[in-house]
Amino acid sequence: MMMKKIKRNALQCRKCGDVIESKFTRDFKYCSCRSIAVDGGLEYGRMIGDPEDIIELYEFEEEKED
Fold first, then answer.
1. pLDDT tens digits for the chain (66 residues)?
2. Number of C-beta neighbours around residue 9 at 10 A
C-alpha cells in the first residue's frame, strides 16, 4: 500500500501574500497579517485561519508501506 508523506508543509495568505512554511514538528508560523498559520512540519499538516484566506502549497511524496 502506498502512503503519502509530507515533503513541504506550506501555505500562502490571500490577504497579505506571505508564504509561510513549517519545517519541523511544533514549528508554528503566522503570516505577517496573522490571518493564517501553519504547523506540524513534516509530521502532520495543520492549517489555522479562514479557508477562504488560504492557498495550500503542500507537497507530498508517495512512500511504500512495509
1. 788 899 999 999 999 999 999 999 999 999 999 999 999 999 999 999 999 999 999 999 987 776
2. 27
Q: Structurally, how many domains does the chain consist of?
A: 1
| Domain span including residue 32 | 2-64
Cell numbers 511504500: residue:
64
Which triple of cell numbers denotes residue 14? 490571500
Strands (E), 1-66: 2-8, 10-13, 19-21, 29-30, 37-39, 46-48, 54-56, 59-64
Nearest to 41 by CA among 50, 28, 30, 59: 28
**Which cell numbers hold the place of 42?**
513534516
Q: Is residue 18 within 8 Å of residue 12, measured between CB atoms? A: yes
